[in-house]
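Pinned message: reference record for Gamma-glutamylputrescine synthetase PuuA
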Amino acid sequence: MVAVELEFYLIDRQRDAEGYLQPPCAPGTDDRNTQSQVYSVDNLNHFADVLTDIDDLARLQLIPADGAVAEASPGQFEINLHHTDNVLDACDDALALKRLVRTVAEKHKMHATFMAKPYEEHAGSGMHIHISVLNNKGENVLADADGEDSALLKRALAGMIHLMPSSMALLAPNVNSWRRFQPGMYVPTQASWGHNNRTVALRIPCGDRDNHRVEYRVAGADANPYLVMATILAGILHGLDNDLPLQEEVEGNGLEQEGLPFPIRQSDALWEFTQNDHLRDLLGERFSHVFHACKHDELVQFERLITETEIEWMLKNA
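Predicted structure (C-alpha coordinates):
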Protein backbone atom coordinates (compact mmCIF):
# COMPACT_ATOMS: atom_id res chain seq x y z
CA MET A 1 0.00 0.00 0.00
CA VAL A 2 1.28 3.46 -0.86
CA ALA A 3 0.08 7.03 -0.32
CA VAL A 4 1.60 10.25 -1.65
CA GLU A 5 1.79 13.64 0.07
CA LEU A 6 2.71 16.64 -2.09
CA GLU A 7 3.77 20.08 -0.86
CA PHE A 8 3.56 23.15 -3.07
CA TYR A 9 3.54 26.94 -3.00
CA LEU A 10 0.98 29.40 -4.28
CA ILE A 11 2.94 32.32 -5.76
CA ASP A 12 1.88 35.84 -6.72
CA ARG A 13 2.16 36.54 -10.45
CA GLN A 14 3.86 39.82 -9.59
CA ARG A 15 7.39 39.86 -8.17
CA ASP A 16 8.20 42.02 -5.15
CA ALA A 17 10.00 45.37 -5.38
CA GLU A 18 13.38 43.63 -5.59
CA GLY A 19 12.28 41.20 -8.28
CA TYR A 20 11.85 38.15 -6.04
CA LEU A 21 8.96 35.70 -5.76
CA GLN A 22 6.37 36.53 -3.13
CA PRO A 23 3.29 34.88 -1.60
CA PRO A 24 -0.05 35.88 -3.08
CA CYS A 25 -2.56 38.10 -1.37
CA ALA A 26 -5.58 36.26 -0.01
CA PRO A 27 -8.21 36.32 -2.79
CA GLY A 28 -10.34 39.46 -2.68
CA THR A 29 -8.06 41.22 -0.17
CA ASP A 30 -4.75 43.06 0.07
CA ASP A 31 -3.68 40.75 2.90
CA ARG A 32 -0.30 39.19 2.06
CA ASN A 33 0.93 36.82 4.74
CA THR A 34 4.74 36.69 4.94
CA GLN A 35 5.06 34.72 8.20
CA SER A 36 5.36 30.99 8.75
CA GLN A 37 2.23 29.49 10.32
CA VAL A 38 2.31 25.70 10.09
CA TYR A 39 -1.16 24.07 10.17
CA SER A 40 -2.76 27.53 10.25
CA VAL A 41 -6.55 27.35 9.93
CA ASP A 42 -6.58 31.04 8.96
CA ASN A 43 -4.38 30.31 5.94
CA LEU A 44 -6.75 27.56 4.86
CA ASN A 45 -9.70 29.93 5.24
CA HIS A 46 -7.97 32.70 3.29
CA PHE A 47 -7.42 30.38 0.33
CA ALA A 48 -10.60 28.35 0.76
CA ASP A 49 -11.85 29.19 -2.75
CA VAL A 50 -8.64 27.88 -4.32
CA LEU A 51 -8.56 24.73 -2.20
CA THR A 52 -12.26 24.07 -2.77
CA ASP A 53 -11.79 24.29 -6.53
CA ILE A 54 -8.87 21.88 -6.28
CA ASP A 55 -11.01 19.45 -4.30
CA ASP A 56 -14.00 19.77 -6.67
CA LEU A 57 -11.89 19.27 -9.78
CA ALA A 58 -10.08 16.32 -8.20
CA ARG A 59 -13.44 14.65 -7.55
CA LEU A 60 -14.49 15.20 -11.16
CA GLN A 61 -11.24 13.66 -12.39
CA LEU A 62 -11.41 10.80 -9.86
CA ILE A 63 -8.14 11.88 -8.26
CA PRO A 64 -8.34 10.62 -4.65
CA ALA A 65 -7.25 13.82 -2.88
CA ASP A 66 -7.69 13.18 0.82
CA GLY A 67 -7.24 16.54 2.56
CA ALA A 68 -5.13 19.71 2.57
CA VAL A 69 -3.16 21.47 5.29
CA ALA A 70 -1.28 24.77 5.50
CA GLU A 71 2.43 24.04 5.66
CA ALA A 72 5.44 25.67 7.28
CA SER A 73 5.81 28.74 5.07
CA PRO A 74 3.57 31.51 3.70
CA GLY A 75 1.58 30.32 0.71
CA GLN A 76 2.71 26.71 1.19
CA PHE A 77 0.20 23.85 1.36
CA GLU A 78 0.19 20.07 1.37
CA ILE A 79 -2.37 17.81 -0.28
CA ASN A 80 -2.58 14.11 0.58
CA LEU A 81 -3.66 11.39 -1.79
CA HIS A 82 -5.58 8.41 -0.46
CA HIS A 83 -3.65 5.17 -0.09
CA THR A 84 -3.86 2.52 -2.79
CA ASP A 85 -2.43 -0.92 -3.49
CA ASN A 86 -1.61 0.09 -7.07
CA VAL A 87 1.76 1.86 -7.20
CA LEU A 88 1.34 3.01 -10.80
CA ASP A 89 -2.07 4.49 -10.03
CA ALA A 90 -0.53 6.40 -7.12
CA CYS A 91 2.09 7.90 -9.45
CA ASP A 92 -0.51 8.72 -12.12
CA ASP A 93 -2.62 10.49 -9.51
CA ALA A 94 0.36 12.47 -8.22
CA LEU A 95 1.15 13.81 -11.70
CA ALA A 96 -2.52 14.54 -12.40
CA LEU A 97 -2.82 16.39 -9.09
CA LYS A 98 0.17 18.60 -9.94
CA ARG A 99 -1.38 19.59 -13.26
CA LEU A 100 -4.72 20.20 -11.59
CA VAL A 101 -3.25 22.44 -8.87
CA ARG A 102 -1.40 24.56 -11.43
CA THR A 103 -4.58 24.90 -13.52
CA VAL A 104 -6.69 26.03 -10.56
CA ALA A 105 -4.02 28.50 -9.44
CA GLU A 106 -4.00 30.12 -12.88
CA LYS A 107 -7.78 30.43 -12.73
CA HIS A 108 -7.34 32.41 -9.49
CA LYS A 109 -4.67 34.62 -11.11
CA MET A 110 -1.70 33.15 -9.27
CA HIS A 111 0.96 30.53 -9.90
CA ALA A 112 1.41 27.17 -8.19
CA THR A 113 4.84 25.59 -8.08
CA PHE A 114 6.19 22.23 -7.00
CA MET A 115 9.73 23.56 -7.30
CA ALA A 116 11.79 22.09 -4.47
CA LYS A 117 13.09 25.44 -3.11
CA PRO A 118 11.48 28.57 -4.58
CA TYR A 119 12.46 30.78 -1.60
CA GLU A 120 15.88 31.10 -0.05
CA GLU A 121 14.50 31.93 3.40
CA HIS A 122 11.64 29.42 3.58
CA ALA A 123 11.33 25.64 3.69
CA GLY A 124 11.30 23.65 0.49
CA SER A 125 8.53 21.41 -0.81
CA GLY A 126 8.72 17.65 -0.50
CA MET A 127 7.04 14.53 -1.81
CA HIS A 128 6.50 12.16 1.09
CA ILE A 129 5.58 8.54 0.39
CA HIS A 130 3.83 6.31 2.95
CA ILE A 131 4.32 2.62 2.30
CA SER A 132 3.22 -0.63 3.95
CA VAL A 133 3.34 -4.25 2.79
CA LEU A 134 0.46 -6.72 3.00
CA ASN A 135 0.59 -10.49 2.59
CA ASN A 136 -1.94 -12.50 0.58
CA LYS A 137 -4.23 -12.54 3.62
CA GLY A 138 -4.30 -8.75 3.75
CA GLU A 139 -2.16 -8.66 6.92
CA ASN A 140 0.40 -5.92 7.42
CA VAL A 141 3.75 -7.71 7.53
CA LEU A 142 5.65 -4.63 8.71
CA ALA A 143 4.28 -5.25 12.21
CA ASP A 144 4.59 -8.38 14.34
CA ALA A 145 1.77 -9.98 16.34
CA ASP A 146 2.24 -7.37 19.09
CA GLY A 147 2.12 -4.44 16.68
CA GLU A 148 5.87 -3.78 16.98
CA ASP A 149 8.41 -3.51 14.17
CA SER A 150 8.68 -6.85 12.38
CA ALA A 151 11.92 -8.46 11.25
CA LEU A 152 10.81 -7.83 7.66
CA LEU A 153 10.41 -4.10 8.39
CA LYS A 154 13.93 -3.93 9.79
CA ARG A 155 15.33 -5.60 6.69
CA ALA A 156 13.38 -3.19 4.48
CA LEU A 157 14.69 -0.20 6.45
CA ALA A 158 18.26 -1.45 6.15
CA GLY A 159 17.90 -1.83 2.39
CA MET A 160 16.40 1.62 1.86
CA ILE A 161 19.06 3.26 4.02
CA HIS A 162 21.89 1.37 2.29
CA LEU A 163 20.77 2.55 -1.17
CA MET A 164 19.74 6.07 -0.14
CA PRO A 165 23.01 7.96 -0.77
CA SER A 166 23.22 6.43 -4.26
CA SER A 167 19.54 7.18 -4.87
CA MET A 168 19.78 10.90 -4.24
CA ALA A 169 20.22 11.70 -7.93
CA LEU A 170 16.68 10.33 -8.41
CA LEU A 171 15.17 11.89 -5.28
CA ALA A 172 16.71 15.34 -5.92
CA PRO A 173 16.88 15.43 -9.73
CA ASN A 174 17.45 19.14 -10.38
CA VAL A 175 20.00 21.75 -9.39
CA ASN A 176 17.39 23.57 -7.31
CA SER A 177 16.51 20.31 -5.51
CA TRP A 178 19.73 20.52 -3.50
CA ARG A 179 18.93 23.91 -2.02
CA ARG A 180 16.16 22.20 -0.04
CA PHE A 181 18.61 20.18 2.08
CA GLN A 182 19.53 22.77 4.68
CA PRO A 183 19.50 22.64 8.49
CA GLY A 184 16.32 23.96 10.06
CA MET A 185 14.27 23.52 6.89
CA TYR A 186 12.17 20.50 7.95
CA VAL A 187 14.07 18.07 5.74
CA PRO A 188 16.41 15.16 6.59
CA THR A 189 20.05 15.58 5.68
CA GLN A 190 21.24 12.01 6.20
CA ALA A 191 20.01 8.44 5.83
CA SER A 192 18.31 7.66 9.14
CA TRP A 193 15.17 6.17 10.67
CA GLY A 194 13.07 6.57 13.79
CA HIS A 195 9.62 6.33 15.32
CA ASN A 196 7.31 9.33 14.92
CA ASN A 197 10.36 11.53 14.32
CA ARG A 198 10.06 14.17 11.60
CA THR A 199 13.81 14.86 11.53
CA VAL A 200 14.70 11.47 10.02
CA ALA A 201 14.62 10.21 6.45
CA LEU A 202 12.46 7.15 7.22
CA ARG A 203 9.76 7.86 9.79
CA ILE A 204 7.54 5.19 11.33
CA PRO A 205 4.36 7.04 12.34
CA CYS A 206 2.36 6.18 15.43
CA GLY A 207 -0.52 3.81 14.78
CA ASP A 208 -2.01 0.40 15.31
CA ARG A 209 -0.81 -2.82 13.68
CA ASP A 210 -2.91 -2.39 10.54
CA ASN A 211 -1.45 1.08 9.95
CA HIS A 212 2.20 0.26 10.69
CA ARG A 213 4.11 1.87 7.82
CA VAL A 214 7.16 3.84 6.71
CA GLU A 215 7.07 7.46 5.61
CA TYR A 216 9.86 8.10 3.08
CA ARG A 217 10.61 11.80 3.60
CA VAL A 218 13.56 12.52 1.30
CA ALA A 219 12.23 13.28 -2.19
CA GLY A 220 11.45 16.80 -3.33
CA ALA A 221 8.09 17.75 -4.81
CA ASP A 222 9.93 18.24 -8.12
CA ALA A 223 10.96 14.59 -8.31
CA ASN A 224 9.41 12.11 -10.73
CA PRO A 225 6.97 10.02 -8.65
CA TYR A 226 7.57 6.91 -10.74
CA LEU A 227 11.31 7.09 -10.10
CA VAL A 228 10.77 7.83 -6.40
CA MET A 229 8.55 4.76 -6.09
CA ALA A 230 11.07 2.67 -8.02
CA THR A 231 13.81 3.85 -5.67
CA ILE A 232 11.79 2.93 -2.59
CA LEU A 233 10.83 -0.49 -3.93
CA ALA A 234 14.43 -1.13 -4.99
CA GLY A 235 15.57 -0.35 -1.45
CA ILE A 236 12.98 -2.64 0.11
CA LEU A 237 13.86 -5.48 -2.26
CA HIS A 238 17.57 -4.93 -1.61
CA GLY A 239 16.93 -5.26 2.12
CA LEU A 240 14.82 -8.40 1.77
CA ASP A 241 17.35 -10.09 -0.49
CA ASN A 242 20.41 -9.26 1.62
CA ASP A 243 21.22 -9.55 5.29
CA LEU A 244 22.22 -5.92 5.86
CA PRO A 245 22.97 -4.33 9.24
CA LEU A 246 20.40 -1.77 10.40
CA GLN A 247 21.86 1.31 12.05
CA GLU A 248 20.54 2.47 15.42
CA GLU A 249 17.23 4.28 15.55
CA VAL A 250 17.51 8.06 15.87
CA GLU A 251 15.95 9.53 18.98
CA GLY A 252 15.70 13.28 19.38
CA ASN A 253 16.77 15.73 16.69
CA GLY A 254 18.23 13.70 13.87
CA LEU A 255 19.59 16.85 12.21
CA GLU A 256 22.04 17.25 15.08
CA GLN A 257 23.29 13.64 15.13
CA GLU A 258 25.83 11.82 13.01
CA GLY A 259 24.58 9.30 10.50
CA LEU A 260 25.02 8.10 6.92
CA PRO A 261 25.33 11.40 5.02
CA PHE A 262 23.73 12.29 1.71
CA PRO A 263 25.75 13.75 -1.14
CA ILE A 264 25.54 17.55 -0.88
CA ARG A 265 25.82 18.46 -4.58
CA GLN A 266 24.18 17.14 -7.70
CA SER A 267 27.56 16.30 -9.22
CA ASP A 268 28.38 14.17 -6.15
CA ALA A 269 24.98 12.48 -6.33
CA LEU A 270 25.41 11.60 -9.99
CA TRP A 271 28.81 10.08 -9.23
CA GLU A 272 27.34 8.07 -6.32
CA PHE A 273 24.57 6.86 -8.64
CA THR A 274 27.11 5.37 -11.04
CA GLN A 275 29.01 3.59 -8.26
CA ASN A 276 26.21 1.42 -6.87
CA ASP A 277 25.86 -1.84 -8.80
CA HIS A 278 22.88 -2.97 -6.69
CA LEU A 279 20.83 0.11 -7.57
CA ARG A 280 21.74 0.02 -11.26
CA ASP A 281 20.87 -3.68 -11.46
CA LEU A 282 17.49 -3.11 -9.83
CA LEU A 283 16.63 -0.09 -11.98
CA GLY A 284 18.09 -1.51 -15.17
CA GLU A 285 21.43 -0.71 -16.79
CA ARG A 286 19.90 0.96 -19.86
CA PHE A 287 17.71 3.30 -17.82
CA SER A 288 20.55 4.10 -15.43
CA HIS A 289 22.85 5.05 -18.31
CA VAL A 290 20.27 7.30 -20.01
CA PHE A 291 19.20 8.97 -16.76
CA HIS A 292 22.78 9.75 -15.79
CA ALA A 293 23.61 11.10 -19.25
CA CYS A 294 20.57 13.41 -19.29
CA LYS A 295 21.13 14.77 -15.80
CA HIS A 296 24.85 15.22 -16.36
CA ASP A 297 24.12 17.22 -19.52
CA GLU A 298 21.57 19.40 -17.69
CA LEU A 299 24.11 20.11 -14.95
CA VAL A 300 26.82 21.03 -17.44
CA GLN A 301 24.45 23.45 -19.17
CA PHE A 302 23.44 25.02 -15.87
CA GLU A 303 27.04 25.47 -14.77
CA ARG A 304 27.77 27.41 -17.98
CA LEU A 305 25.27 30.10 -16.98
CA ILE A 306 26.67 33.37 -15.63
CA THR A 307 24.41 34.60 -12.84
CA GLU A 308 23.65 38.11 -11.65
CA THR A 309 25.21 37.20 -8.31
CA GLU A 310 28.52 36.37 -10.00
CA ILE A 311 28.50 39.68 -11.82
CA GLU A 312 27.61 41.60 -8.66
CA TRP A 313 30.34 39.91 -6.63
CA MET A 314 33.13 39.72 -9.17
CA LEU A 315 32.73 42.37 -11.89
CA LYS A 316 34.69 45.01 -9.98
CA ASN A 317 36.43 42.77 -7.45
CA ALA A 318 38.17 40.10 -9.50
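Pinned by admin. Summary line: The chain has two domains: 1-125, 127-317.
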